[in-house]
Amino acid sequence: MEEYKNNLFHGANSKLFEFSKALRKNQTETEEIIWQCLRNRKLLNFKFRRQHPLHQYIADFYCHEAKLIIEIDGGIHNNPENQEYDQNRTIELMKIGITVIRFTNEEVNNSLDRVINAIKSYLSP
């Protein structure tokens, strides 16, 4: 069981668990839209977790089976310093075998079918 937790959370610390719990209670409208599409194995029977502590980060949505993180980015992610942080974060997560895909709030709100199909393409063999 301990090895499973280590693989599931990749050494995330207790502060990340506390913060992720708070984030789950205060998710954005766009995160709620995606969550309704992912929860309870609705998407190709893959289990997703929301606001999941992983390594040094918190993933918006994480599928351990597929080693896939889905990030939903608001406008703040357009700032150069945030873009650099996001890029470095993606590189760090790739080093531990996790793929990160990103969508903007606008993509989710205006093209939900396209977003879901894009996610499906990462889940299909």
In helices, the fraction of residues equals 40-55%
Which blocks of ≥5 consecutive residues have pLDDT under 50? Answer: none
Mean pLDDT: 89
The description of the largest β-sheet is: 4 strands, mixed
Number of domains: 1
| Coarse shape | globular
Distance between the termini: 27 Å
Order of helices and strands: HHHEEEHEHH
The appropriate CATH architecture is 3-Layer(aba) Sandwich
Radius of gyration over all CA atoms, rounded: 14 Å
Instruction: Enumerate how many helices there are, as a single number.
Output: 6
Which percent band covers the strand fraction? 15-25%
CATH superfamily: VSR Endonuclease
The CATH C-level name is: Alpha Beta
Chart the SSEs and their pairings.
Layout: H1 2-9, H2 14-25, H3 29-38, E1 49-54, E2 57-63, E3 68-73, H4 80-95, E4 99-104, H5 105-110, H6 112-123
Parallel strand pairs: 3-4
Antiparallel strand pairs: 1-2, 2-3
